[in-house]
Write a structure and sequence with these properties.
about 325 residues; Phage tail protein beta-alpha-beta fold; 13-stranded mixed beta sheet; three-stranded mixed beta sheet; 7 helices; about 35% helix; globular; disordered N terminus
């Protein structure tokens, strides 16, 4: 088991480093020193060269197919190839987008976690924050209030009482103000999910603010009013802290994003309608591939594994 985990970490690191080298090479000619470093990296670990080939081949396939002449009389095979090229190009763009986005978060964050990693942070006032996998926060305490920005991922906030300085979490274009002690905030793309474990919070987004009580949950997007709070089981609040991902009637795309915090690589829906399908279930965060297989089975979709880091979902 430990060997498997070590191999996964090694291959994940090779993948991340391969993307960095690929971007550096595409940006311009390497110096002789940098070229020597690249060659040494390739030879330094058996996982490095295959990881780099995966990234480079994905890009070259997209570039070749994109430049192929179009014909109205193209055969079905040619049309399929062009569609595959567009998909490969989209995936290559996604790789670059995620890489640069991660870099941006890195420079803004005071505390962050990697894939499959969690961390507990105690702030100067005694408040405690538990960061979920692939999550990041920026702490901006002021004299009049305590501000924490959730830049990405998910976090559990256990707030130390200090009535003269409100504790405010900024996420996805809105704010969550503690009116008690404990709550969870998760950011998925442009949406935030707020779940209260103890007492209550005030959520402000769009034109209105609302109160979310203990055992309730709400969703919001930037400049859009939060949804009417709904009841959730207290046992399910921040279940990720116990190694479980609890999903209740959520879009598959959102579930894939959450699972993506626990494994390296990308899962891409060939058709947008696939990612819009609704999912419910309880999944182990330490077995994201098993969770993916269970979703595949229950939704009647199939996964096409192109590389160790790229899986396509199709119906």
């Amino acid at each position: 088991m430990h060997e498997d985990r070590d191999d996964a970490v090694r291959h994940g690191r090779a993948h991340d480093e391969a993307i960095e080298w690929w971007v550096a090479i595409k940006a311009g000619a390497l110096s002789a020193e940098a070229r020597s470093e690249f060659e040494a990296w390739l030879a330094g670990d058996p996982a490095n060269a295959p990881a780099y080939r995966d990234i480079a081949q994905m890009y070259e396939t997209a570039r070749t197919l994109r430049s192929a002449p179009r014909s109205r009389e193209a055969s079905p095979v040619s049309r399929r190839a062009l569609r595959s090229g567009a998909l490969a190009l989209a995936v290559a763009s996604l790789v670059l987008f995620v890489w640069f986005d991660d870099l941006s978060v890195f420079f803004r964050a005071d505390h962050q976690t990697g894939v499959g990693e969690t961390k507990s942070v105690t702030l100067a006032d005694g408040s405690r924050i538990e960061l979920g996998a692939r999550s990041a926060i920026a702490v901006r305490y002021e004299e009049s209030r305590r501000r924490v920005a959730l830049l990405e991922g998910e976090a559990w906030f256990q707030v130390a009482p200090e009535p003269s300085r409100p504790f405010v979490v900024e996420a996805a274009g809105g704010t969550i103000t503690a009116l008690g002690t404990a709550f969870n905030v998760a950011v998925e793309k442009s949406q935030a999910r707020v779940t209260v474990g103890e007492h209550r919070v005030a959520v402000s987004s769009g034109k209105d603010a609302l109160i979310v009580d203990e055992g309730q949950e709400t969703f919001y997007e930037a400049d859009v009013d939060a949804t009417v709070p709904r009841s959730v089981g207290l046992d399910n609040v921040a279940a990720w802290r116990r190694g479980a991902l609890v999903v209740e009637d959520r879009p598959l795309g959102e579930v894939l994003s959450a699972l993506g915090r626990y494994r390296r690589g990308f899962v891409y829906c060939v058709h947008a309608a696939t990612c819009a399908r609704r999912v419910s279930g309880v999944f182990a965060t330490n077995e994201p591939l098993r969770a993916l297989r269970e979703i595949e089975f229950f939704l009647g979709i199939r996964a096409i594994r192109l590389t160790n880091y790229l899986i396509l979902l199709n119906e």
